[in-house]
Amino acid sequence: MKFAVIVFPGSNCDRDMYHAVKDVLKTEADLVWYEGSNLENYDGILLPGGFSYGDYLRCGAVASTSDIMKQIKVHAAKGKPVLGVCNGFQILTEAGLLPGALLRNEKLSFMCHQEPLVVENNETIFTAAYDKGEVVHFPIAHGEGNYFCDEETLKELKANNQIVFTYQNNPNGSVEDIAGIMNKQGNVLGMMPHPERAVEQLLGSDDGLRLFQSMIQNWRDMYAANA
Ligand SMILES: NC(=O)CC[C@H](N)C(=O)O
Questions:
Q1: What parts of the chain have a pLDDT lower than 70?
Q2: 47-60 confidence digits (pLDDT tens)
Q3: pTM score over 0.95
Q4: Which residue pairs from 118-123 have beta carbons closer than 8 angstroms and sit at least 24 positions apart in sequence?
């Protein structure tokens, strides 16, 4: 499985994402600059965290209008996996690939520490290697991670099991403690906590490993089924 880690001006978690998949998980991966790149030969798209375009306008708003997002939308429409972490999640909501929006944290401060999360749905290509209800530990690092959506969207998210991760101790005011959601088709996941920063015990947790392993295993199963 070959991953593209998309790099925007202002991305700053791109190297961590690349390190996680390339060095720790030993998968093929490239850092892919947002301009002049072709995504056709990649199996999975990883939108890393950071401050794309300096968070101007709104976090992720400018990046969401970039040309590479058109290719990412085509990739997603084919059912291929897309994972957006932190600023990546913000870009996915701004681009309309995921519903809702990320608002300023309730306490209006940037927060950077480890949080316990609950795996709400383990029947996804991103979480198959976890148990349902399992508590995992990933770091957060954001100023605008307060997930918001209207009542109708929330109902839909629940009805379709699109809420993948929740916070055990909601740090930012997110609706229903939501930490990560996927699209209805189940191939686009956005989450504020950083699984790529939880892939080695040295970092305080390696709970993020199984998220990438789930994606890789799913791709292998699909590849084998289509061979
Ligand atoms: N680590 C990140 O991706 C941060 C995202 C965004 N700049 C925020 O502060 O909310």
A1: none
A2: 999 999 999 999 99
A3: yes
A4: 118/165, 118/166, 118/167, 118/168, 119/164, 119/165, 120/161, 120/163, 120/164, 120/165, 120/166, 121/161, 121/162, 121/163, 121/164, 121/182, 123/161
Query: What pLDDT is recorded for position 227?
Result: 75
For residue 50, give the DSSP letter.
B
Q: What average pLDDT does the chain have? A: 97
148 C-alpha to ligand 1 centroid (Å): 16
Q: How far is the CA of 51 from the centre of ligand 1 (A)?
A: 6
Residue nearest to atom 7 of ligand 1 (CA): 51
pLDDT at 91: 98
Distance between CA atoms of 121 and 180, rounded to whole angstroms? 10
Q: Residue 225: what pLDDT?
A: 85
Active-site residue set: 86, 194, 196
pLDDT at 226: 82
Number of structural domains in the chain: 1
Query: How far does the centroid of ligand 1 lie from the alpha carbon of residue 167, in Å?
Result: 17
Cα(211)–Cα(222) distance, rounded to whole angstroms?
A: 17
- Give residue 66's domain range: 2-226
CB atoms within 10 A of CB 72: 25
| Domain CATH number, residue 218 | 3.40.50.880
